[in-house]
């Protein structure tokens, strides 16, 4: 009973405040939207805040997987849209406060804020992806997750001063105090839907859908923003997937493709036509689908080795020119430079032809299981066996 009353009151209040806010926002900006220029990618947790610990079978924790996927998303966006500024709230294992994350996005006037996390639950069978937007809608509101993802505030020094107007134990009050996000909720929901569709339709993940939470990082950022939960690290199957290179490539590619869709939507028809050549030109793991992954559930991935050296080769050096998506592996004291990530040998072979045409004549296909090198024949055999 009281809940219904609160929601009604809230709705009325929200309408008034949103209207006021939108007028203010228009006045402040005073200019037309000129296309998506800046994206902030936020790898959840970091440093002394590990996030959730998963099943304990891996050394990696939520913060590590969030960072891997966040860096890949950023890399894919940069490669496909060199004019877009990609800003990371952290690029390594450092601790960033929640207030600091929102501030980075606001200071840089980002057009979109993407926060990346992994879920955990007491039930080992809990599974699936979720994408959160700021909000309080009764059926879609997840209070448990709201409290969990905000709780890092207690780890911060001086949190009482920094968050004097935000009570992590009673986040719903934030809706009345803040209301920063309401003006951007439609755009946030659009992007969140694209993300969940990509996860479900292209990567074969179980999507739990778009949810709402009163999440500090989302509420305090003044642009469309979402918080993505890639899956449950408390579920061994999902933990295996999210720890595998292939799983990370697939999830990052899905978020990248959702971004591409959202950008098109956000910019409308005119801008899309102008940039369509660039948009269609490239994009990692475009052809991911459920079948490919279910054929390869053991984290085996094929890559193309371009060259191997005892010395480190600088990024952008002439020896590595002409190819995107180059990754450096450090194996047995040598630096190996590899390209791409393919779920099966046939796709890697196809890509190898293109790579050779670009001048890397001695390139060849290698296989990895997780981060361990594996003979290509053994990798193929192992995939056939399953
Ligand atoms: Zn988290």
UniProtKB/TrEMBL annotation:
Keywords: Hydrolase, Signal
Signal peptide as annotated in the record: 1-30
Catalytic activity: Hydrolyzes the link between N-acetylmuramoyl residues and L-amino acid residues in certain cell-wall glycopeptides
UniProt cross-references to InterPro entries, sorted A to Z: MurNAc-LAA_cat (IPR002508), N-acetylmuramoyl_amidase_3 (IPR050695)
Ranges where the MurNAc-LAA domain occurs: 102-260
Transmembrane segments: none
Enzyme Commission number: 3.5.1.28
One Gene Ontology MF term: N-acetylmuramoyl-L-alanine amidase activity
Gene3D superfamilies recorded: Zn-dependent exopeptidases (3.40.630.40)
Gene Ontology annotations for the cellular component aspect, listed alphabetically: outer membrane-bounded periplasmic space
GO biological processes: peptidoglycan catabolic process
Domain of life: Bacteria
Cited Pfam families: Amidase_3
Name this polypeptide is given: N-acetylmuramoyl-L-alanine amidase
């Amino acid at each position: 009973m009281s809940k219904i009353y609160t929601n009604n009151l809230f709705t009325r209040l929200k309408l008034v405040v949103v209207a006021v806010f939108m007028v203010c926002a228009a006045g402040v900006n005073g200019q037309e939207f000129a296309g998506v220029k800046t994206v902030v990618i936020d790898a959840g947790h970091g440093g002394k805040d590990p996030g959730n610990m998963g099943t304990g079978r891996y050394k990696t924790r939520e913060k590590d997987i969030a960072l891997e996927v966040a860096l890949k998303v950023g890399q894919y966006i940069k490669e496909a849209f060199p004019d877009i500024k990609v800003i990371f709230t952290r690029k390594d294992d450092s601790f960033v406060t929640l207030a600091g994350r929102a501030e980075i996005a606001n200071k840089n006037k980002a057009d979109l804020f993407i926060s990346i996390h992994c879920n955990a639950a007491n039930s080992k069978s809990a599974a699936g992806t979720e994408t959160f937007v700021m909000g309080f809608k009764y059926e879609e509101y997840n209070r448990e997750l709201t409290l969990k993802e905000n709780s890092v505030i207690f780890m911060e020094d001086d949190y009482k001063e920094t968050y004097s107007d935000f009570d992590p134990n009673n986040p719903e009050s934030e809706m009345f105090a803040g209301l920063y996000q309401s003006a951007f909720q439609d755009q946030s929901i659009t992007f969140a839907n694209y993300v969940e569709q990509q996860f479900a339709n292209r990567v074969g993940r179980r999507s739990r859908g778009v949810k709402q939470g009163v999440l500090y990082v989302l509420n305090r950022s003044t642009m469309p923003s979402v918080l993505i939960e890639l899956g449950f690290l408390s579920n061994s199957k999902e933990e295996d997937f999210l720890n595998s290179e292939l799983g990370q490539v697939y999830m990052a590619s899905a978020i990248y493709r959702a971004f591409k869709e959202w950008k098109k939507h956000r910019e409308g028809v005119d801008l899309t036509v102008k940039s369509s050549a660039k948009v269609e030109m490239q994009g990692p793991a475009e052809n991911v689908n459920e079948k490919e992954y279910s054929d390869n559930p053991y984290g085996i991935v094929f890559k193309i080795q371009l060259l191997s050296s005892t010395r480190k080769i600088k990024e952008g050096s002439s020896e590595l020119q002409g190819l995107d998506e180059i990754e450096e592996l450090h194996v047995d004291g040598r630096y190996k430079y590899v390209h791409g990530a393919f779920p099966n040998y046939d796709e890697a072979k196809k890509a190898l032809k293109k790579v050779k045409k670009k001048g890397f004549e001695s390139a060849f296909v290698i296989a990895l299981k997780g981060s361990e090198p594996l003979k290509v024949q053994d990798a193929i055999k192992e995939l056939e066996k399953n």
